[in-house]
Design a protein that fits this description.
It is a single chain. By secondary structure, the chain is an alpha/beta fold. The protein has one domain: TIM Barrel (Alpha-Beta Barrel). Helix content is about 40%, strand content about 15%. The chain contains 10 helices and 10 strands. The strands form 2 sheets. The chain has an 8-stranded parallel sheet with strand order 3-4-5-6-7-8-9-10, covered by helices on one side. A two-stranded antiparallel ribbon has the order 1-2. α7 crosses α8. The radius of gyration is 18 Å and the shape is globular.
């Protein structure tokens, strides 16, 4: 499995997103993903499935040190004390002594970022997470986070797929040695039937979804596609046996538009 190096962290470039996976199906999908060769599992407090993710990791029987596990603190728990409490609760649900990466799920302007990052750095120093990062942070917020944190920020997880232009945020992260993880990397299924992506796919014997994932990882971007179907796990994993040409990469890049964002809740920041 290819990996991305980021401020001391080594993060597998392809992972399993678990948003909206529930109960026994979540456990089954996590277990099967690990048995197929995935080594990166992404969850969050807000997904309400950390317990099932932990069960799936244990059921797979893969040594803990070989599995990179990410979880996220929900934005309502960003004050000092609340963040530490929520992290302890996440670890109790996962039945793990630590996670590999702990992210701030969304920015929260009502709590000073310095206070939140102070708590985030504290739980890292206490060994509850190996690395820390952010999610849905804009260019300005990334710069603020780097300036305020006294531990390395290793990752910014953002919505990223061919229909959205995140070049400014990606460039800001790379200037700081911060890796980028793409959530909703196949635009929540919207790529199916896309003529441009399917045309590229036909040239390689691949699906539009596989082309999307290859497009991201070929740029050194971590992708965490989510699926509830075991057969789709294998399809998403089969992206390391072909390369997109420079012309194909450029063609896919043209699909981005101002209306391409799929995730824009009321608490979102002012996007770049």
């Amino acid at each position: 499995m290819l990996a991305v190096q980021s401020n001391g962290a080594t993060i597998p470039i392809l992972g399993l997103g678990t948003w909206d996976l529930r109960a026994k199906n979540c456990t089954r999908i996590v277990e099967q993903a690990l048995r197929l060769g995935y080594r990166h599992i992404d969850t969050a407090q807000a997904y309400e499935n950390e317990r099932e993710v932990g069960e799936g990791v244990r059921a797979a029987g893969i040594p803990r040190e070989q599995v990179f596990i990410t979880t996220k603190v929900w934005w309502t728990d960003f004050s000092a004390g609340a963040l530490e409490k929520s992290v302890a609760e996440s670890l109790a649900r996962l039945k793990l002594p630590f996670v590999d990466l702990l992210l701030l799920h969304w920015p929260n302007a009502s709590v000073p970022l310095q206070e939140t990052l102070g708590s985030l750095c504290k739980v890292k120093r206490e060994g509850l997470t190996r690395h820390i990062g952010v999610s849905n942070f804009t260019v300005a917020l990334v710069e603020q986070a780097v300036a305020l944190a006294d531990e390395p920020i290793v990752n910014n997880q953002i919505e990223l797929h061919p229909y959205i232009d995140q070049s400014r945020v990606i460039a800001a992260c790379r200037r700081r040695g911060i890796s980028v993880t793409a959530y909703s990397p196949i635009a929540r299924g919207a790529v199916k039937g896309d003529q441009a992506l399917e045309k590229v796919g036909r040239a390689h014997g691949k699906s539009a979804a596989q082309v999307c994932l290859r497009y991201l990882v070929q740029q050194g971007i971590i992708a965490i596609p989510r699926t509830s179907r075991v057969e789709r796990l294998a399809e998403n994993f089969a992206i390391f046996d072909f390369d997109l040409s420079a012309a194909e990469m450029a063609e896919i890049g043209k699909l981005a538009s101002p209306a391409g964002r799929r995730v824009d809740p009321s608490w979102a920041p002012a996007w770049d």
